[in-house]
Amino acid sequence: MRSLFCAALLSVTVVFLTGCASTRGVGRFHTVVLDAGHGGIDRGAKGVDGSTEKKYALDTAKRVERGLKRAGYRVVMTRKGDYFITLPSRVAISNRRSGAVFVSIHYNWARRSSASGTETFYYNLKSYPLAANIQRELARFTGNRGVKRSRFHVLRNNARPSALVECGFLSNSSDARKARSSSYRQRVAGAIVRGIVKSSR
Fold this sequence. Notes:
It contains 7 helices and 7 strands; from the N terminus they run αββαβαββαβαβαα. By secondary structure, the chain is an alpha/beta fold.
């Protein structure tokens, strides 16, 4: 009965981290494609303090890169600086790699300034464990908005297990203040690294 209940949860759009959240892996992989959201002319979300998503996404991705390399993984960055890359190009970088997973890093925005916390998205069931493991680690110290299914281009068209992580709302004054902190971005990066490593099973 428990397994049937867990299976039912996977069929809905939003999957909150409960006892049913899978901590199994997506299979052995040796390469992680890290995608820092936005870049160049695409600044992404604008924070209440004037900050830009593209800057925080790249900084966080580079921190994740360092952590994964220390853990022995090969890392491929879709962008290493402040320049624009199309969504199809980001997916193509991932699809060219075998034995890989894809993680896209973003900071969120909402019309409601009260919206806060972290959430992680996936598209298909093979990607769910990756998203769930990352969000489980983030939820240890952030507001937990759960794991959600989405048709984002970089997830829907990806041949590899893939997840998109929203690391906080720049439209929320508290989350934006945290995002400005290098120590917070380091904690976020560490959580993403741990989630990825736990998924390599």
